[in-house]
Specification:
- This protein is an alpha+beta fold.
- The chain is globular.
- The mean pLDDT is 90.
């Protein structure tokens, strides 16, 4: 199975929910991860969530049914950035 990656962005002043801003598999997934690493953007590995999010179109907000899973991602990010 090819590696997959999905990048999310959330700006409460602009949108109601996080948006998918990039997604890809194989070479594109590696580039998404590399760019995130270069910019100190936290990365969480969750293959099931990536599968679900990769079904969404780029620039689409995450649907309400996925809020709980996304909240866990943002909690992970908060904990990791707070340690730095």
């Amino acid at each position: 199975m090819k590696q997959k990656a999905v990048a999310l962005k959330y700006d409460a002043e602009v949108s109601n929910a996080p948006k998918v801003v990039a997604k890809g598999e194989g070479f594109n997934a590696k580039n998404i991860i590399k760019i995130a690493s270069l910019h100190d953007i936290p990365i969480q590995k969750d293959e099931d969530l990536v599968e679900l999010l990769s079904e969404l179109d780029v620039d689409r907000e995450v649907p309400a049914q996925m809020y709980k899973a996304i909240a866990e991602v943002f909690s992970f990010i908060y904990k990791n950035t707070k340690k730095s």
